[in-house]
Amino acid sequence: MAPGIIEGALPDSLSSASGKPTVYLLDTFHPQVLAYVKENFDAITTDDPRHSRWRQEARYLLVRSSRLTAQDIISCPNLVAIGKQGVGLDKIDVDACASRGIKIFNTPGVNARAVAELVLTLATASARQVGSIIAKQSSGILVPKEKCSGLILHEKTIGILGMGNIGKCVAKIFRGAFDANVIAYDPFLPADAWEEIPHKRATSVEEVLRSSDVITVHMPLTPETRNLIDYDQMKKMRKTAIIINTARGGIVNEDDLKQALSEGLIWGAGLDCHTEEPPSYEKYQGLWESGRVVSTPHIGAATAETQMQTGMAAARYLMIDELERKEQALSQRLRELEASSAPHDPVSYASFIAHLFSDANWRKSHASLLRTLADAPGVGEVSIAPCALPSAAETQMLFEKYLSWAHIQNPFLLRRSIWALHQRLFNNQDASAPVANHDLFRAFMLCAIGSVLPYRNRIHDRHPGAYYNAALQYLGTEFGIYHPIGTSVWDVVRVCGRLCIELGLHNNPNVQGDLLQTQLRRRIFWQFYLIDRYSSTTLDRPFLIDDNDISTKFPVETSDEELEAANNQVQCLDSFGINHEPNVQNEMTVFFVSVRLRQVSSHIQTEFSKLRRKVTDSPSKRLLPGHIHVAMTKLLQELQDWRNNCPIIQEPSCLYETQEWYDLLLARERQSVLRRAIDLVPKLNGSPPKGILTVFLRSSLETIDRYHSLWCMKRTMMTHTRSYFHMLFTAGLSVMYCTSVSKTIAADDLRASYQGLLRCRELLNSVTKQLPDANNYVSVYEALFRDVSQRLWPKESETSLPSDASLVAPATSAVPSYPHDLGNFANGLPQHILTDSLPSDMDNMSNFATNRNFFDESVLDPVSQFRAPMQTDNDINLEGINWALMSYDSLWNMESALGQYVYGDPTNTGGWEGFEF
Question: Where does the record place the Xylanolytic transcriptional activator regulatory domain (predicted)?
Fold first, then answer.
């Protein structure tokens, strides 16, 4: 259905004072759903005095069981969309909505498991006459077991009318529970549906009814399906047949069912849906007292999990619709601006985004970018079929690749357990013994990770996703991610963290008499710590556990084999004597490097959170620059200390053992510190002090260059990831920001920035070859780069460099020099980022703010900043230099949205709402 078109301005009542869209809730909802709605909407609940005016004022409605008639729809002049918790639409006048262009968002598929389990419940209860036995016992009647007689469902035939999500789930459950034969009918699904489920495809309803012991209905109530199963149909069924209806009341004719039961035409029925809901004793007394009917009041989706999931899905669909409408309104407004503005009129825009979008030529070239910015940053899905395990030799090769790559940085499995798994899979003496699902899941996951580099280096022909999708088949029902609702990596990490805490892994666990298991528990906890710190820092969210609450010590720095050998001689892991030679790798070497860096980044996050509160709460702003400088200098020194203590491995076997890798990590974390300092430092007319802006620019360019050098030198050792993409994208935005807000900048420095941005663009395009779902972000970057290039480098031509210049390895093997000491941090980068000469202190980055005038507001005087003459060879006028790339908040809101793409909820669209269009 097409979205409704609202002409003119919307009434004031349709949006709240907070600017959030208003939604009226016609029913009660799960507490988590209510919390989400209140966070993202102006939510008007049934107990709100304003609720009585929902017909007159509702723009959005959220409903669960309420009925919306055609008259209700007519009475809602402003209604544009309805979020419906659950699948069925029989209580909503769909035709009336269609005639108005009102969208209806229901939630098919989310409740499939809950309803399918109820089918199993009703079928077994009816087969064993549980309902009548309970009713008699509850009324005081003794029920001797000799008078009870039921049916066995094992290897019986289940007939399924409707082969949607619920029907499919029912088929799998009955196949697993009873080895049931499945016959199914659905006139709308293709012939090859349910290929993975053994079943017979019926050609008519009658074929299902004649052949089945249990008939379960899963189809909507329509004029064609009303009274689908009546007395004549029941006469065709087996005497021991059981009818289950969890779809809609009215599909099974209830009067005919009562007659059929009284005549013994069928065994019984399980009804979760009735023509009257909730069902009353007055209407259903005859059916209930027959002793052959188990009746429930439409509870198929009435589980806490399902109520939360379906309600959340309906609410999020409304949020997505609101964002799409904002995008449409924005496009319309920009068209109006274009039509009303003369080409020669000077127009001043508040932000880069507004200026960018008002450019008609730019929009014609990038028609889809508006949509890109408004859409949720989603993760593209590629359909890759699951595969079987490869041969024993090939599996061994992939396990070895895993151990020599991913395991080096993330040793949360024991080597011996991996090879024991291989033994169970391929060398088991009892070939008839089934392989445990847990073993198959772990084996496929190891193959998926181990095949990444071989596949991308074209020495292995099977896509890692094929192994991953195969692994998911063995994950079981204990854990699931519901993609329509969205679960972020950050959320999953927190689930893992809660498990670690519940198991006491944060509290220095000890397995008596087993050093290796104690070591493993420590490794698992610190592995969680590493991921928690990185994802929380990326998303600027709180850590799951504070450093002060962790008493678990580091694993000992030794190999698994040494621990096993010492198990009988040493009682406690901490008393294990280590004679470790420096720079000799063992099981923990690289892991310690990563964890210690995360400890520093945790400190960075904590310190800047304190500074942010100080900035907010401080009555005097004059002391803030000093506080920021002290904290920044201390944190940069901590990072340098970490780098100085990194091991030197003479013959690195993987990326994580190379010095270039450690240099890149240092550059990334430095950029993070400076990025946060830029956030808090006082600004004049949106521009930070030029000294810190200089260092920020140099840090961003260094990050790009470090990654480029690493990619050129170690291409076969590394694979692009979303984390790398986030780092590059942020560095590129930072360079754009620095060059656009710097009021005085030399031509040579602009040239260096241009080359850095060009190199960053080529690297980002290289990333998309391995991560196609990053294309939208590259489109955004290219549009921003193209626009800033036209304004700041009007005479530059990309043809002056090779088209792939940024990915060409240096002519010599030497990497551009970036000494590790803080005092020479800027070496190898443009030396005169400002037209005026830098303060002498700027030669030492760790003390760049010790100059008394560094944070003095007079340094930022807009007049004095333009006294130095511009470089004539750059041909950039004053207006071009003074032009700001974009508002500060808009720039970093874009970075925040990218963070959601990397570690956050891919359906979370909040990051894009901060743009000042």
Answer: 489-561
The pTM is what? 0.51
Express as a percent the part of the chain with pLDDT over 90: 36
Closest by CA position to 731, among listed 858, 543, 898 = 898
Catalytic residue, chosen from 298, 460, 708, 759, is 298
Q: Which one is predicted more confidently, 348 or 538?
A: 538
**CA-to-CA distance for 225 and 250, rounded, in angstroms?**
8
- 607-641 burial string, b = 16+ CB within 10 Å, else e? bbeebeeebeeeeeeeebbeebbebbbebbebbbe
Please tell me which residue in 59, 248, 274, 506 is annotated as part of the active site.
Answer: 248
Q: Which domains does the chain have, with CATH numbers?
A: 1-107+304-340 (3.40.50.720), 112-300 (3.40.50.720), 392-472 (no CATH), 489-575 (no CATH), 589-596+627-885 (no CATH)
Residue 283 · residue 308 · CB < 8 Å:
no
pLDDT tops 80 at residue 25: yes
User: Under a CB-based contact definition with an 8 Å cutoff, are residues 905 and 487 in contact?
Assistant: yes
Q: Whole-angstrom Cα distance, residue 275 to residue 248?
A: 8
H/E stretch holding 269 reads strand 268-271
Question: pLDDT (tens digit, 9 = 90+) per residue, 33-57?
Answer: 999 999 888 899 999 999 999 999 8
Axis-axis angle for helices 31-40, 304-340 (nearest 10): 10
CB under 8 Å, gap of 24 or more: what pairs does 443-449 form? 443/389, 443/395, 444/389, 444/468, 444/470, 444/471, 444/474, 445/471, 446/398, 446/399, 446/402, 446/418, 446/421, 447/389, 447/390, 447/395, 447/398, 447/399, 449/402, 449/405, 449/406
DSSP per residue, 167-192: HHHHHHHHHHHH--EEEEE-TTS-TT
User: Can 400 be counted among the known catalytic residues?
Assistant: no
Give the residue carrying structure tokens 């009892």: 430
277 tagged catalytic: yes
475, HSE (Cβ side, Cα atoms, 13 Å): 13
Is the model's pLDDT at 905 over the cut of 60?
Answer: no
What is the rounded CA–CA span in Å between residue 128 and residue 151?
Answer: 6
Q: How far apart are CA 855 and CA 789, in angstroms?
A: 30
Given the residues 117, 207, 277, 564, the one annotated as active site: 277
